[in-house]
Amino acid sequence: MERKYSQQLLTSMLERQHVINENGLDILIKPIPETDEPGVLDPRFYQSMESILKGFKGMLVKMMLKGSRKKNIQKSAAQMRKMMNGVNSIPITEGVDVRHATVQNGDVAVPVRIYTSQKKSGELQPVFYYIHGGGFVAGGPEVVEEMCKLVVANTGCVSIQVDYRLAPENPYPAGLDDCYTVLKWIYAHAEEFNGDPNRICISGDSAGGNLATVCAMKDRDEGTQMVKAQALLYPSVDAAGMQEHMQRRDVYEISPSQEKEIRSILDLLSGGLGTVGLGEYLGVPDDTIPHVSPLRGDLKGMPPVIILFGEYDFLRIEDDAYALKLKESGVKVKTVRYKGLSHGFADQVGVTPQAEDSLIEIGNFMLENV
User: Fold this and answer.
1) Which fold does the domain 82-244+270-369 belong to in CATH?
2) What is the C-alpha separation between 232 and 215, in angstroms, rounded?
3) What does the pLDDT look like over 132-144, one tens digit per residue?
4) How far from the centroid of its chain's Cα atoms is residue 190's Cα?
5) d(CA 247, CA 263)
6) The pTM is what?
7) Which residues are known catalytic residues?
8) 8 A C-beta contact, residue 226 and residue 219
């Protein structure tokens, strides 16, 4: 299937991208392809959100979010699944095979998907281990499958995706244990699917970014050194402070011409959790622990990391803080901010040029650091 945008839009971003320094952190700024006007939304992103901001559907979404504030965890989880379980990408990749397998974690058989290039190579290839997002309660392999395929098509790597157990039915640390068990399985079995166990990049989006970087943290603490690089898309890294971060709006540059729309999107996306905190979904009594809020942990000795997020992401404050703390801890970090976008854009492969660009950035970072 053809992309819904021209190659020229990808080129335009590359030609106009630039680096700024904020609070001692270098940030690569990716412009909206068609404009340099500050404080506005990317037109494709706005179009994708317009139906849930206006009209009858918008009214239903607002009613749903209002109902979620009653702290019914099961009902909130069901509502999040309705919002997050759709497939937004279109198939644009060719030449990638998919194989299904399971990894045993005690009594639990954890499903995994293995993506390999049809262009066979005699050399072992880097391994791109991906963990999907969804607030720890939603999402699934189908949502991000085209993302994994695109990284394989671009780099020739092997990709593994894990279908970990979700909260609240499976409280912490069930999902994390699944993800870490699969990491250890990849390290032990990578050569069976032409992967190099010594060149693993772990990646994930949102809650998956949390699980990815916590797996890297566990790997560091245990001295196993399986993870050589991290690629985090708008990761949740401070569950304990998320509600506080989401109340701040002073960091966002907002044009008066789109103030209503942008603030509505920030309210909508941050309100998707209602007043139920991530720690409550996970069933942890203390959500300040580093394996739930890695921003609050020791980051020294972590593997190199690329962090990518949108200008209007409700997790932007904690992602900026995580990138800065990584840098101050002596970790190699690359930070990429996409103008005019909010949370969850990377699964729109083939629909928006920024989704494709973000995966190109991730693939290049992986090849440079594993």
Assistant:
1) Rossmann fold (3.40.50)
2) 12
3) 999 999 999 999 9
4) 23
5) 11
6) 0.94
7) 206
8) yes
